[in-house]
Amino acid sequence: MIGENYIHFYDIDSTNNYLKNNWRNLPSETVVRASVQNSGYGRKGNHWSSELGGLWYSVLFKPKSRPLNPWHYVRVFSLAIYDTLAKYSINAKIKWPNDLLVNDKKICGIVGESIITGKVPNAIIVGIGINVNNDIPYHLKNYAVNLKSLIDKEVSVEKIMNEINHKAYNSYYLRYLKEKSVSVITKKWLKVLNIKINDEVTLINFNEKKENVFIEKITPDYLEVIDIDGNIKKIYAGEISVRKSGGK
């Protein structure tokens, strides 16, 4: 069960880094949470502000008979967090491929990482950062939101974490994260994305260069888009940021 082995730090560099350094000696489904992260990071290594009051944690998976593709695990938690927020009457959307947005503002970021020795994947680490009661820095107020402001009260971060982990484990991990049924997770994930076929989106590369394109096809691993000259391109998760035109 996710979180049966639970480790908490008040202050740490990164919960993902802790698991990457200690995964051999810890059981599968270990959860590591920090009240504060000094070097939290998201996709592409981007810094993630991780101040007191937020939910910052990582989960280790070392399954013997389940797929070891990190994107599957990211989708499990994307859906579990989506479902958990819905319990609080919050209509979130999943931003392709892994963030959660409320009214086009980020409330949650998720990163999945593989532990590989040689050419063999041995473990998956999923890092989760959710703005719960933490203050949003002034320069991010147009781009991020916290749960407290959406429901007008503070919530226990441990309660939220336990709700997410229960939903992830029982509704998705045990039921669907198998070779023959993992596609069900993908189908559910696709239904709640913030982008749809024919939407205009803005692509932003690592140099912050922007390009507006239209979506032709959405898959779990890449988007097929068409640019203003009619050229069709494949955009792979991890290569570039995708934002709805006019959105965050």
Question: Layout of SSEs?
Answer:
Layout: E1 6-12, H1 15-22, E2 31-37, E3 55-61, H2 70-87, E4 93-95, E5 99-102, E6 105-117, E7 120-130, H3 147-151, H4 157-176, H5 182-191, E8 200-204, E9 210-218, E10 222-226, E11 232-236, E12 241-244
Parallel strand pairs: 1-2
Antiparallel strand pairs: 2-3, 3-7, 4-5, 5-6, 6-7, 8-9, 8-12, 9-10, 10-11
Helix pairs in contact: 2-4, 2-5
Describe the structure.
- The longest helix has 20 residues, at 157-176.
- It is globular and about 55 Å long.
- A hairpin with a 5-residue loop joins strand 10 and strand 11.
- With 248 residues, it is of the alpha+beta class.
- It is built from five helices and twelve strands.
- Helix 2 packs across helix 4 (157-176) and helix 2 (70-87) crosses helix 5 (182-191).
- It starts with 5 loop residues before the first strand and ends with a strand.
- The strands form two sheets. A seven-stranded mixed β-sheet has the order 1-2-3-7-6-5-4, with helices on both faces. Strands 11-10-9-8-12 form a five-stranded antiparallel β-sheet, with no helix packed on it.
